[in-house]
Design brief:
Blueprint lengths: L11 H4 L3 E6 L3 E5 H8 L6 H11 L1 H6 L3 E5 L3 E5 L3 E8 L6 E8 L6 H5 L9 E7 L10 H18 L3 E9 L8 H7 L9 E9 L3 H17 L6 H6 L1 H7 L22 H18 L3 E6 H19 L3 E4 L3 E2 L11 E2 L3 E5 L2 E7 L13 H17 L7 E10 L4 E8 L6 E10 L5 H11 L7
Parallel strand pairs: 1-6, 15-16, 16-18
Antiparallel strand pairs: 2-4, 3-4, 5-6, 5-10, 7-10, 8-9, 11-14, 12-13, 14-15, 17-18
Helix pairs in contact: 2-3, 6-8, 6-11, 8-11, 12-14
Length: 453
């Protein structure tokens, strides 16, 4: 009697009761009653009840992506997305079975996975194992950018020529303390084999078991990057690297690895490679559950990466997220510290930079009240950061996303009391890998430490 595989199988008719929707971060969206009724075969006259049941059944998933439920309007439900990109499974309000997914991506059409391959450090997706997908065609977390990062680190680690002792069997002319006498006894009847001993020897080699484990992860990463899940642009950028690596290991003898052990004695580059390998392996095991990534944190990290490169090229000191502590008799609800995103200084000149993932540089000629209010908060915040250092020459910068090229606007704030003034630069940077180096070049012209500035 054959066993029936009932795991996550859903009848065809019920599989049609799904709702797959794509939203953008930090925005307001309307989920129409008509979409719910059509997707879940509900009763039009009870659309409000269907919507209430949908919200109830999917409350945990919505909380995970921090999607707020606004007022239920005449035509549908207002959904307010947070700073998180990611994907959550939905449950059908009519039968309680898996019923589609919500996918939230970047607000301005950017490809986060493309840019994550160029920044230092790692921003890993968070997973929720309580929220499982039961569909094959789900929006998966961007695993391939971790795979690309692993390939780059593998190339760097290979140059290090990491060697370890491996215990291998060798045929030698003399016996040793590790001679395998059982094997010798089987063939010693032949006089020609009298002086051939199977000895176990410690040999210093690059092809030791730990390197083979890393080759297994490399093989997986190559397959992931070359798969149809990876955008063509990203795939094309790695073709040359993959071509040179593919013939460096024997695919037939690779061990299956679930976790790579990291040792204290490992060289720094090997330790970094192993940590990235474990991130790849962990992502593989978590691929079928809900995931999210903080897009505002990503934008901050991306701006920090750009500014760090500029600061180091100019011999300036770079500080990311320095903490200014708040002490004294503060109430329990008061902040313990404030934390600017970036400080760059050299000699008597200082740049205070704050990154904001907001739409201001897409709306330069828009006088909407909400843009004014949020900009007021941003400006007050960065000006407060600028007051905590004694540098004579200070420049304040607010960095936002922009469309196709770097946008720079300078505004000057002048006090009517003492005539003191402060320059504030409003900067928009495109979130595209294709213009990444051009962005750095443009900002390098703005951040200068020459005596005449």
């Amino acid at each position: 009697m054959s066993k029936k595989n009932t795991s996550s199988k859903i009848p065809f008719e019920q599989k049609q009761l799904i709702l797959n929707k794509t939203f953008t971060v930090l925005d307001e969206h309307l989920l129409k009653f008509s979409e719910l009724v059509n997707a879940y075969k509900g009763d039009k006259s009870h659309a409000n009840e269907l919507a209430s049941q949908f919200i109830l059944r999917n409350s945990e998933a919505l909380r995970f992506l921090e999607i707020e439920i606004g007022q239920v309007a005449e035509l549908g439900i207002r959904l307010i997305t947070s700073r998180y990109v990611g994907c959550i499974p939905l449950i059908s309000p009519t039968n309680g079975l898996p019923g589609g997914f919500f996918y939230v991506n970047g607000r301005f059409g950017e490809d986060i996975s493309e840019l994550l391959t160029v920044i230092d450090g790692s921003i890993d997706p968070e997973y929720n194992n309580n929220l499982k997908f039961y569909q094959n065609t789900i929006i998966k977390p961007p695993l391939y950018f971790e795979c690309m990062k692993y390939i780059d680190k593998y190339i760097e680690a290979k140059k290090y020529k990491w060697r370890k002792f491996d215990n291998v069997e060798k045929i030698q002319s003399r016996p040793t303390s590790s001679t395998q006498w059982d094997k010798y006894a089987l063939k010693s009847y032949d006089p020609a084999n009298s002086f051939k001993y199977n000895n176990k020897c410690n040999v210093l080699t690059r092809e030791h078991p730990e390197w083979q484990e890393l080759n297994y992860v490399l093989d997986f990463c190559i397959k992931e990057v070359m798969s149809s899940r990876t955008p063509i642009r990203s795939r094309s950028a790695y073709l040359a690297k993959i071509s040179s690596l593919s013939n460096l290991y024997d695919k037939r003898s690779l061990p299956i690895v679930k976790e790579v052990k990291v040792h204290r004695s490992d060289p720094a580059i090997i330790k970094s490679l192993k940590e990235t390998a474990n991130q790849v392996l962990q992502n593989v095991s978590s691929i079928n559950c809900a995931w999210r990534m903080d897009f505002a944190e990503f934008f901050e990290r991306y701006v920090q990466y750009i500014m760090k490169r500029i600061a180091f090229a100019k011999g300036a000191r770079f500080s990311a997220n320095p903490k200014y502590s708040i002490n004294g008799s503060r109430p329990t609800w008061a902040l313990k510290y404030i934390e600017p995103d970036i400080i760059i200084d050299k000699n008597d000149k200082q740049y205070i930079i704050d990154a904001k993932y907001k739409a201001h540089m897409f709306n330069i000629y828009n006088d909407a009240e909400h843009l004014k209010e949020t900009f007021r908060d941003d400006l007050h915040q960065v000006l407060a950061y600028s007051s905590f250092d004694g540098n004579i020459h200070k420049k304040v910068m607010l960095v936002y996303p922009s469309d196709k090229e770097v946008v720079i606007r300078e505004i000057k704030i002048t006090s009517s009391l003492n005539r003191y003034s402060c320059s504030v630069y409003l900067i928009g940077i495109p979130l595209k890998k294709s213009v990444h180096e051009e962005t750095i070049d443009e900002l390098s012209k703005l951040i200068t430490f020459n005596s005449e500035d």
